[in-house]
C-alpha cells in the first residue's frame, strides 16, 4: 500500500504540467479514492506469501522466509519497471498502461522506434531508486525474518490460511454486490484526474484478462472497405431533414430510461393490456415509435446505445473499458456544450459494470445514485425503489436552472422484481413478479408525470421514454428472438407540438440520440451509428446482437444469424442474399470500430 501511494505521487510529479491544473481537493480525492484499487491489488500480491506459509505445514523443509523475500524483491522490480513504462506511455497515449502494448508484440521494431525518444536514463533511475528504497524498507521493517513467533507449524499454517481467506474481501473491493472496477476512482470531469487515481498494475491485470475480447475482430466476412461501404449505404438511405414536432426552440429534456420494459407488456404496442396504463396514455398524448428494437440485452449496453448512439458488442461491452468509452460521443456532453444543466439519476450503484466512469465522460454536472437515498428506501438487492427515485428528481427539478437535460434510470423492474406496493396481478411465478414490477414502475411514472404537469417547467419540457432493453419473459423468448428485443420509445411532454402520432419506421436504440438531436438542432455528426427516425428513408432497418450472433430486421423480413456456425438461425420469408450480406457487414464493421477505439 505504501508503494502504490508513493508511485501515485511519482506519476503526478512526472506529469507536473497536468498536475498543476488540479486543485488541492482534486489531489486529496485522487489519493483517497485510489486506495481501494491499491488495496485490491495489494491483496492479490499478498496472497502468495500466506499460501507459501500454509505450504510449510505439508512441506516443513521449505525455506519460506527466503522465498517471501525474493518474491517481494521480484514484485517490486517488476512493478517499478512497469511504472516507468507507464509514466512515459501516458505522455503520448493519454491513458494508463493496459493490454494495448500486446497489439504491438508482433512489431518489435516499431516498439523500439517508439521508445527511442523516451528519457530512458531518467526512467531507469526512477525504477531503480523506487525498487531500492522499498526493498530496503521491506528488508529492515517487514521482512519475515524480523518476526520470531513461538508458534507451532500447524498454528502458523492456520493463521496463514485465515489471512489468505480474509484477503478475498479487499480483492473484490468490499462487501458490496458489485466487484470493484475502475469506476471507483472516477470523480472528475478532468480525465487526467481520474487516470491518476487508477492503480496501474490492477488496470493492466484487468485489461489483460479481457484482452482476447477487445483486441481482435472475430467477424471477418468480407474485406474491411466492402463492409464500410455497405454500412455507409444504410445510413445514406435516410434523408437529412424531417418534420419538426416541438413548439419550443430550446426545451428542457427529461430522458427516462425504463429498466427491462418489453413491448410484450405495453398495450399500445400490441402487448398485454393493463400493465402499463400510464405509458399507454402518454403515448396517446405524444408520439410513439412502434417498431423500435434494443441493441442488446444488458442494462449497461442499452445505456451506451441510448446515450452515445453506439452499437452493442456481442461477447463484451465497451463500457467495461474506460479508455474506449472516452472516445464515444455522449448526449450529456452535447447538451452541456449547448448550455444545458445536466444530471443523471439512478437508484442503484453507479459502480455496476463501470457505469460511473462512462457517465463521468459524459460531463454530467450531477450524478445521483444509491448512496444519495436513505437505506430504508432500498429493495433487497439493487437500491432505491422507483417512486423514491422520481420523488428526488421532482424535488431537484424545482431548483434546476433551465434549460436542463436530466436522465433518469429506473431499476425496480429488474429481478428480483420486488415492489413496495400491493401486487396488481395474482400469481407467484417469476413472470407474475416481473409483470407486477413493470406495473409498479408504470404507477410510479404516472405519479411523477401527474405532479410534473403542475410544475412551471412542464410546458417547456420534452420527455423521452425508452427502455434499456427488452426481456425474454413472459414467454421465455430465445436469446435471438425479435420479440425479446422490441421496446417502447415515446416522446411526450409540454414542449411537444405533435400529438397522438405513431411512427412505424423500423429503428434501433442507436437511432434515439440522433432523432432527438435533429429535433433540437444540436450537432449529431459524431453519432454516426444513428438515423433520424422522423426523416424519410428508403431502407428502414434495425440491428441488434446477442451472444455471438446478430439479427437484422427490415420491413417484413427478419434475419437472425449465428456468428459461430456462420449460418442463419432464422431466415424469414423474403430475406434476400443482399440482406444477409448487409447484416454481416454491419456486424463486422461495428465490432471493428469497437476494436479500434
UniProtKB/TrEMBL annotation:
Keywords: Cell membrane, Manganese, Membrane, Metal-binding, Transferase, Transmembrane, Transmembrane helix
GO cellular component, one term: plasma membrane
The organism's place on the tree of life at top rank: Bacteria
Keyword Cell membrane (UniProt): yes
Chain positions recorded as substrate binding sites: 414
A Pfam family assignment: Sulfatase
Protein name: Phosphoglycerol transferase MdoB-like AlkP superfamily enzyme
